[in-house]
TrEMBL record, chain A:
One Pfam family recorded for the sequence: ATP-synt_A
Membrane topology: Multi-pass membrane protein
Cellular localization per UniProt: Mitochondrion inner membrane
Xref: InterPro entries: ATP_synth_F0_asu, ATP_synth_F0_asu_AS, ATP_synth_F0_asu_bact/mt, F0_ATP_A_sf
Sample GO molecular function, one term: proton-transporting ATP synthase activity, rotational mechanism
Family affiliation: Belongs to the ATPase A chain family.
Listed HAMAP family: ATP_synth_a_bact
Sequence intervals crossing the membrane: 39-58, 93-118, 124-143, 150-170, 182-200, 207-227, 233-251
Residues in coiled coil: none
Organism whose genome encodes this protein: Entomortierella parvispora
Keywords per UniProt: ATP synthesis, CF(0), Hydrogen ion transport, Ion transport, Membrane, Mitochondrion, Transmembrane, Transmembrane helix, Transport
Protein name: ATP synthase subunit a
UniProt xrefs under PROSITE patterns: ATPASE_A
Cellular component terms per the entry's GO annotation: mitochondrial inner membrane; proton-transporting ATP synthase complex
Automatic annotation (TrEMBL), chain B:
Organism annotation: Entomortierella parvispora
Protein name: ATP synthase subunit 4
Function: Subunit b, of the mitochondrial membrane ATP synthase complex (F(1)F(0) ATP synthase or Complex V) that produces ATP from ADP in the presence of a proton gradient across the membrane which is generated by electron transport complexes of the respiratory chain. ATP synthase complex consist of a soluble F(1) head domain - the catalytic core - and a membrane F(1) domain - the membrane proton channel. These two domains are linked by a central stalk rotating inside the F(1) region and a stationary peripheral stalk.
Keywords: CF(0), Hydrogen ion transport, Ion transport, Membrane, Mitochondrion, Mitochondrion inner membrane, Transport
Alphabetized InterPro entries for the sequence: ATP_synth_Bsub_B/MI25, ATP_synth_F0_suB
Lineage, broadest ranks: Eukaryota, Fungi, Fungi incertae sedis, Mucoromycota, Mortierellomycotina
From TrEMBL, chain C:
Membrane topology summary: Multi-pass membrane protein
HAMAP family associated with the record: ATP_synth_c_bact
Protein name listed in UniProt: ATP synthase subunit 9, mitochondrial
Taxon lineage: Eukaryota, Fungi, Fungi incertae sedis, Mucoromycota, Mortierellomycotina
Keyword Ion transport attached: yes
Entry keyword annotation includes Transferase: no
Length: 258, 239, 73
């Protein structure tokens, strides 16, 4: 049995998500440890990429856009359309926020697809950190806009009086669960996709070094790897879009109270 | 560096594969003896592969390939670059990315150029429209280029009119004044005349009274009589 | 013993993916249905479908994640 496990799973597919320290500073004086880990490095890279993309799309402040800025413009336009359809006119104030979230999550997803790299969005600290922060912000916004009427969110319209306590409990729990589910969805998708790729490539590698006949057969799983890579690229876009869309719908709850 | 080397060597290896495939298909077509499609001869294919390599002469190209192959071999043998399952992911990623770039580039470029041209034409049209509007305005204004002189003349005319009106008014006032004075004087004259008439009538009445009284005096009556006799004598003498 | 239990547990956890499969199938079946009924709102329907697909797939991935947690922790 153990030999079977050893031959099938030599490498843990979750190994790629390990956080490694590159250097750290700290000590008795500072009391805390400041370290640059690979997730930190990749988050910095993503930030630089987001800023660089946006800077390039300025196109020297020319009126006629370049091809590069058209891409950003169409991304911007699609996010704007999404906000208009989910929140409505009031939500356009949150366009920069949602657009930044979209770009950041999208690039964090995409940078993980580059071979030998690390996926920042495959860590719960990324997704759930984002979603908890968003939920806190949305709740503050709701109380600021509607004061105590915001609690009306927890009582759906037309509830019989007897059901109100139960429904309020359920709604409160589901409201708080958003903080977890929003980030968990993104992170689970990323982990799932990368683990799938890793397991498939491990199997295929076993076949590649197994012998000439297996090498020939390994073309089939290799085609699957290519297909999964394409799927992963699509999922990176979809998940970034869904993350932004759900954030927008939570904002909608806070602004328009259903 | 290792990555770049690998991609380079992969790109070197891929055309070779393609060449093999094409030779295989050539062989199959020879068997089938139905060469309808355009065949690429192995020589030209090889030439195109050689042309795609960097360098000028055949020697430098060979040098590049040898150096790349040597470097790749060195890196792999010293285990600086290790072939493992991640290499497969790298290959798959390169294939997917290359496929996306190859397939999406042309439509994207066309779409982007169309969009850019649309914006550019809109801007240029706006510029032309603006220019036309400005020229129109210039023409309109140009029609009124002697408006200053006309205005000046009009102003002078109106000034003159005002002056004349003022004079006319003055004259009218003077006339009215004169008429007033004249009427006053006339009434004065009438009054004076009536006063004089009254005095004269008084005087005449007095004189008539006086003469009547004188005539009643006999001394005067005799004197008149003498005087008239004298006159009659004088007339008679003359005759 | 523990290893085999882990593997069995992970395998059992993947049963949850059946539900996700049904869900994704339902989502796209609904897309096909509605597009056939009213092709003019295809773009809007597609964006909803993508949202539904992502939500459903995430549920499936929770099961997959349970399997990984069982296998490797």
């Amino acid at each position: 049995m153990t030999t079977f496990i050893n031959t099938v799973f030599i490498n843990n597919p979750l190994e790629q998500f390990e956080i490694k320290e590159f250097f750290y500073m700290g000590g008795p004086l500072l009391g805390a440890k400041f370290s640059l880990t690979n997730i930190g490095l990749y988050l910095i890279i993503v930030t630089i990429l987001v800023l660089g993309m946006s800077y390039l799309s300025l196109n020297n402040n020319k009126v006629v856009p370049s091809r590069w800025s058209i891409v950003q413009e169409s991304l911007f336009g699609s996010i704007l359309n999404m906000i208009k359809s989910t929140i409505g006119g009031k939500g356009e104030a949150y366009l920069p926020f949602l657009y930044t979230i979209f770009l950041y999550v999208l690039l964090s997803n995409l940078i993980g697809l580059v071979p030998y790299s690390f996926t920042p969005s495959s860590h719960f600290v990324f997704g759930i950190g984002f979603s908890v922060a968003i939920l806190i912000g949305v709740t503050i916004l709701g109380f600021q806009t509607h004061a105590l009427k915001f609690f009306g969110l927890f009582v759906p319209a037309g509830t019989p009086l007897g059901l109100v306590p139960v429904l309020v409990m359920i709604e409160t729990i589901s409201y708080l669960a958003r903080a977890l589910s929003l980030g968990l969805r993104l992170t689970a998708n990323m982990i799932g996709g990368h683990v799938l790729l890793k397991i498939f490539s491990t199997f295929t590698w076993k076949a590649v070094i197994g012998g000439p006949i297996l090498l020939l057969i390994s073309i089939i799983p290799f085609a699957f790897i290519i297909a999964f890579t394409g799927l992963e690229i699509a999922i990176a876009f979809i998940q970034a879009y869904v993350f932004t869309m759900l954030t927008a719908s939570y904002l909608n709850d806070a602004i328009n109270l259903h | 560096m290792a990555l770049r080397l690998l991609t380079k060597s992969a790109s070197v290896a891929r055309p070779a594969l393609a060449a093999q495939r094409s030779t295989a298909s050539v062989a199959i077509r020879h068997m089938a003896t139905s060469a309808e499609e355009k065949q690429v001869s192995p020589e030209s294919k090889a030439q195109s592969i050689i042309d795609s390599l960097p360098g000028n002469s055949l020697i430098t190209k060979t040098g590049y390939v040898t150096a790349l192959a040597g470097a790749a071999t060195y890196l792999i043998s010293k285990e600086i670059y290790v072939f493992n399952e991640e290499s497969l992911v790298l290959l798959a990623f390169a294939a997917t990315f290359g496929g996306i770039v190859k397939n999406a580039r042309e439509p994207f470029n066309a779409w982007a150029d169309e969009h850019i041209n649309k914006i550019r034409t809109i801007l240029q049209k706006a510029r032309v429209d603006h220019k036309a509007a400005v020229e129109d305005r210039i023409d309109q204004v140009g029609q009124m280029k002697d408006v200053v002189d006309v205005t000046k003349a009009l102003y002078a005319l109106s000034k003159e009119t005002a002056k004349l009106e003022a004079e006319a008014f003055e004259l009218k006032q003077k006339t009215a004044m004169t008429a007033e004075v004249k009427s006053v004087l006339d009434s004065w004259v009438r009054y004076e005349t009536s006063v004089r008439e009254r005095e004269q009538s008084k005087l005449a009445a007095y004189m008539i009274e006086k003469i009547k009284a004188d005539l009643a005096d006999p001394k005067l009556q005799s004197q008149i009589l003498v005087e008239s006799i004298n006159q009659v004598e004088k007339i008679a003498n003359k005759a | 013993m523990l290893q085999s239990a882990k593997i069995i547990g992970a395998g059992l956890a993947t049963i949850g993916l059946a539900g996700a499969g049904v869900g994704i199938g339902t989502v796209f079946a609904a897309l096909v249905n509605s597009t056939a009924r009213n092709p003019s709102i295809k773009a809007q329907l597609f964006s909803y479908t993508i949202l539904g697909f992502a939500l459903t797939e995430a549920i499936g991935l929770f099961a997959l994640m349970m399997a990984f947690l069982l296998l490797y922790s």
